[in-house]
Structure prediction request, 430 residues.
Amino acid sequence: MNKETQEQRCGSWRRDSGSVAIIVALSLVMLVGFSALGTETVFVLYKQRQMQSVATSAALAGATALMTGHPVNLATESLAVAATAGFANGTGGTTVTVNHPPLAGNYVGNANAVEVVIGQPQTLPLSSMFYSGAWNISVRAVATAGSSANACALELDTSNTTGVTISNGATVTLNQCGLGVNANGSSALAVSGGAVLNTKSVSVSGSASVTNGGVINATNGVKTAQPAIADPYSGVTVPSGSGCKYGALPNSPLNLTHSNSGTQTLNADGVYCGGLSMTNDAVVVMNPGVYIINGGSFSVGGAVQLSGTGVTIVLTGTGSNYATATIGNGATVVLSAPTTGTTEGLVFFQDPKAPNSGTNNFEGGASETLTGALYFPSQTVIYSNGTNSSATCTQLVAWHLQYVGGSVFNSSCSGTGVSTIGASPSALVE
Prediction:
């Protein structure tokens, strides 16, 4: 090999080595660049997730403020939650927008929903080589307000109608509890004629109408356009029975009147067909158990004294003959529901199949101490003429409610077996 050829080969090797070095150097730059871009991408994803979590918390906080009424300006609560988490509106380019009702999504215009939108610019050094300007991250969350009604009176019909009527000088006092109205009409709750509703809270799916001297005193305010409150006893199975041990169908009730022998005792050992009637100063004790009234009426009046512990009165029937309840004419009634078993918490339990046309009347100055729930899911309940319920725990759940006389309900229900009405948490929906 001559000297010239050797030098040519050496020069070629040096040139190849230099090319490889350049390629390696460029490859390293690219690898470092892609690694850096990957790191920035991970950072963006992390930041977006962090912002989404904050938006969710802020929306739920706003919905809870809407539910409770505190603070009145719910945006204040949402902004405070976002700021505490490091996303203060107007700081470092951060924007936190609270919309009530929402301006986008499936809940546009929904007065029971709160929308929170958070935006924040991010400076990404390497990404800026390919894109000029800041990278803007934006997230959004929507929450609906729950219910703090803690109601002791609930109207169930959700149609466009008047569900609760308080009129003609009636005074309805719901001590430490609220009123729930599921009707969605423009006068879903109608208070008129000098009537007064004293309550802790009012939750109405539609609107409330207060006319002709009517008054609503609600500690936590009247909230309209609210979601319907769930029926707390919808899952209870109607107790069944067969035959007729007492009375006869269709309308031949067992009648109890004044007895010279004193107290008369009833047992839950068979079906009462055609109803059960108590009149004329009768003194009656109902032993514990589930009393099935098939058709007719459960009627108590004429200064009757009726008492019982651990009692559920089931009003059922067939066709159009479903039992109803009437208590009035100066009767004194002291009944408490079972605290265990399939009908726990229920004093009156009307079959949901009963026709809407029926009415149940608590009237005539009766003195009632009914501990538990009065459940009439498909019929109207009317309170009139000064009927007073003095139990520390009384619930009333009915298709429609009418008050035309004074009545008092209480919600100190700890340990009585009743179900909570209307208390539900705020929920994230978008």
Q: What stands out?
A: The longest strand covers residues 367-384. The chain has two domains: 3-145, 151-410. Residues 3-68 form the longest helix (66 residues).
